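Structure ticket #2291
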Amino acid sequence: MTRLFLFLTFWSLASCRVLAASEVEVDSWGQSSVVEGEGIGFAADGTGMVQNPFHKIDHAELPSPGGATSTVDSEYFASWDSDGFFSFLVNAQHAAAGNPQLLQSRSSGTIFLTPSINSLLSIDLLYDYSLGSGIREARISAGVFVPGNGVIFSDEEIRLSLSSPPTGQISIDSPPAPSTC
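Resolution: structure written out below.
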């Protein structure tokens, strides 16, 4: 069985001064776990419900015509506090189970938030993977987008390995985004 592990600390928001809880507004978010196969459809689980603190476990599975079942199991955490710290974590396990038609298996989260004062933003990601024979790609990506101002930070890492099974780790530690405070 092929396993793909993802540990993602996605957002951490810290201001230049102490914030009141009302000074960070989470406008909306979407989190989803998807497994998709060529010619056999897709299965998904997720939600857009904003809640503090947030904890949810997703499960989606996709059987292939040959009898193999690909699955994705993702656990999501989100919280923010009166000091203005916002964090989002995804811990996921993907199993391709020898499914030859597997196109993608993904766990993702998108958060739209509005700090009412200038803020510092940092993103730390850790992605551990162990992929079976025939599955050669592991990917991790993160970005910060500001409406009307475009991209402040975007990073995407793809690692290919010819070993069998491919194993490794990808880490991204972004410097804090510029602040005017």
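Closing remark: Residues 36 and 42 are 4 Å apart (CA to CA).
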